[in-house]
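Work Package 4 report. The design task specified in the project plan requires that, given a folded chain encoded as structure tokens, an amino acid be chosen for each position. We show below one input record used in the internal validation round.
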């Protein structure tokens, strides 16, 4: 089973990045998003997917390995062009992190996919068993989770989440394609809420925010302490949040909290002062941090205002 044609639904941060990665690896890619206009004759019908592709083309660091690979991506919308997915060897869902829209999409894909296609979800934590509700046996055998991390080209880890019903040949084919063609490092995860990385990582992120509040620290201090200094990514805690998207983080924490009964609640100010006000991180031009012409500002969770960023340097920190 060879994957040469890929369909990605959802042209946001993850979908456009996955499309760029697959196109860079030589695949032909169909990238779909919701229609940009209810009028079928509107030239903006496929604008959301086109915008996603443009963002991937311009992204820094680059999502495409070479600019020419972008010509292998065909953009469309889910109202007019869903039938394009019938040609695809692998269809990857990367839409909003909510069960109902994902389930609706899978019902439509089930009706048109070719029998040999593999279908996967990039969900951050919704169990595959939930996403499969209402689907038939044939679909269930061809379905698994493929949890890429942000940005998909650069993050080596890929969690592959088979269900007890996934065909072994499908797991093998996805493994080999992801390792050999996309260059990922695979971890097979059980179909439990949050899988491995988010069950631990998002829990750690939320716990860090709580400690910050208890000790009266600032976002700058926490990122200074939880990044390179302790051998973790430079994006540390809050830069990672901005990269992920605060809306995605809100959905993920709510979902994993509800399904595990564990405490994944984000501080109220994240919901009230940032998510509710559209400050969703890099995708909206600001979140925990905001870039301005005068420099980077950091959200002060005590005063609820942005203040100039204070980097932790010198002293014991510098020595460490
Ligand atoms: P995003 O908000 O950047 O993009 C989602 C895209 O899906 C948007 O362009 C939106 O218009 C589109 N969309 C929404 N509903 C749709 C529908 N019914 N049909 C077609 N398109 C639809 O989100 P994202 O960060 O790219 O996340 C996508 C998925 O990947 C989510 O399940 C998320 O949990 C998961 N994920 C996100 C990250 C991350 O760091 N952001 C990491 C791993 C996994």
């Amino acid at each position: 089973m060879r994957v040469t044609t890929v369909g990605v639904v959802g042209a946001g941060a993850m979908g456009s990045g996955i499309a760029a990665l697959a196109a860079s690896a030589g695949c032909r890619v169909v990238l779909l998003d919701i229609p940009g206009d209810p009028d079928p004759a509107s030239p903006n019908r496929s604008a959301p997917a086109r915008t996603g592709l443009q963002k991937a083309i311009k992204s820094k660091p680059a999502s495409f390995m070479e600019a020419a690979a972008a010509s292998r991506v065909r953009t469309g919308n889910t109202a007019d062009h869903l039938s394009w997915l019938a040609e695809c060897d692998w269809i990857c869902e990367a839409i909003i992190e909510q069960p109902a829209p994902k389930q609706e999409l899978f019902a439509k894909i089930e009706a048109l996919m070719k029998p040999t296609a593999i279908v996967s979800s990039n969900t951050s934590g919704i169990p595959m068993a939930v996403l499969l509700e209402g689907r038939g046996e044939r679909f269930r055998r061809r379905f698994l989770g493929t949890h890429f991390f942000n940005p998909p080209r650069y993050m080596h880890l890929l969690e592959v989440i088979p269900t007890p019903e996934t065909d072994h040949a499908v797991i093998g084919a996805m493994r080999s394609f992801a390792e050999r063609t996309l260059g990922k490092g695979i971890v097979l995860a059980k179909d439990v809420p949050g899988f491995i990385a988010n069950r631990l990582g998002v829990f750690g992120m939320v716990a860090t925010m709580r400690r910050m509040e208890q000790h009266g620290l600032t976002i700058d201090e926490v990122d200074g302490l939880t990044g390179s200094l302790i051998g973790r990514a430079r994006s540390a805690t809050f830069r990672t949040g901005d990269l992920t998207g605060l809306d995605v983080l809100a959905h993920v924490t709510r979902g994993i909290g509800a399904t595990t009964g564990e405490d994944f609640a984000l501080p109220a100010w994240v919901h009230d002062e940032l998510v509710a006000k559209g400050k969703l991180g890099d995708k909206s031009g600001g979140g925990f941090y905001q870039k301005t012409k005068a420099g980077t500002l950091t959200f002060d969770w005590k005063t609820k205002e942005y203040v100039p960023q204070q980097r932790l340097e010198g002293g014991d920190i510098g020595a460490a």
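The mean pLDDT is 96. Validation will be extended to a larger panel in the next phase.
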